[in-house]
Design a protein that fits this description.
Blueprint lengths: L6 E2 L8 H10 L5 H10 L3 E2 L3 E6 L2 E6 L2 E2 L10 H4 L18 E6 L5 E5 L5 E4 L6 E5 L2 H7 L4
Antiparallel strand pairs: 1-2, 3-4, 5-6, 6-7, 7-8, 8-9
Amino acid sequence: MHDNSKWLYISPLSSVDLIAEYEEVIGYSFPSEFKICVTYYNGAHPKNKVFLSFSGKRKRKRIFNNLFSFNKNDPSTIWKYNDWTGRMRDWNENGQMDGYVAFAKDPYGNLICFDKTNDKIVFIDHETLSIEVVADDFTEFVDSLKKN
């Protein structure tokens, strides 16, 4: 998993303590494999970007644009993407998104998230709020990324 040739535009993590601080704020502990990835590839774009999402029997190709950065002042910081009372309030009508933590996005404004109940990876369409299963865990998700 620690192969710098597979990630672009890394924004070095200013402090590993930012991960624990963020976990405390959102009330969720990220899986260890995700935390390790962030310490190496904070805010980065994977070279292999394509993954599949599943909704019932339908599968769709999706694009992983970048991991959110844990540095508070970076443009694509995780600190603003899970603020359901602020920037993302329109996503969370009736609280249906409270069970998810966004950690990445696609190029079109859709989110790639952890399901807080089981650490599975899901894709959430920002227009329909449909939730599609992607992978059973973070490692499976990263391992599934393809060129196209």
